Amino acid sequence: MIGGTGHVGTFLLPRLVRRGHEVINLSRGRRSPYADDEAWRDVQHVSVDRVAEDEAGTFARRVAELGPDVVIDMVCFTPESAAALLNGLRGRVAHLVHCGSIWRYGPSVALPITEENGTPPAGEYGIRKDAIARMLQEQSGSGGLVTTSLHPGHISGPGWAPIGPLGNVDAGVWWTLSAGEELAIPGLGAELLHHVHADDVAQAFELAVENRDAAAGEAFNVVAPSALTVRGYAQIAASWFAQSAHMRTVGWERFRASLAPEYAEQSWDHLWRSHYVSIDKARTRLGYDPAYEPQDAILQAVRWLIDHERLDVARPLTV
Description:
It is built from 13 helices and twelve strands. It is an alpha/beta fold.
């Protein structure tokens, strides 16, 4: 697994160990996973700087020389890097599983968004992720290396800040909601955010590995069973603090002016897309059965941040 100590790897590597797999994690450092699990004792760690080795043209060979049956790539962000890995693994590895993103789809038109009806991607990140997914499918279709791409939504869970009700990671929204203060939201608040718990993403990767024939040459959306609107998310989150959400709608220009530029850009990127994504294909072909609704995954993240004194709130959680 390439990049196994991140959000998804925290849950996926222990799952694979418990399945009886011999697991090797390739990462730049030895960062601790976000959640403790004794199964990590059985994971072999290899330190590697992918960016440097991609530039040197040695990364794919380094991976292949480990003799894996399956390679799970969590940290590939450019078609060039994906192509180099494909070329180096062809004929030497049975299955390559890639982590993509629902940002391979552009702004929503028809809902829910399926693997077939998404609009063309917008923005460099989404364009690259879509290009990689298409490359992988073409590779499998041409009889080359068997590949699968999985496309998570906004990954949430213990250990890091979730995308908040305004579509960004500004921690101030949690103080506002916990204090019962007025929250300015852009537009009507009907825009959609589609989260997913990191362990549910890990479940999907495990299923792709265990069901290679069903996963071969396919792309799958991996999200929670439902999505949240901005106003619905704010109302649910406020209730965690025994508060009601008091919302005031404002225009986008005024909203942008009220935030730091990076948070305003995050909000626009998420809310403009307004994604609500179907998991019917993953359910039918892989048996994907997410355990967490989006609000449950987000609550775990908020609780962890509060418990570890990384988030200031006006009053404690009541749930």
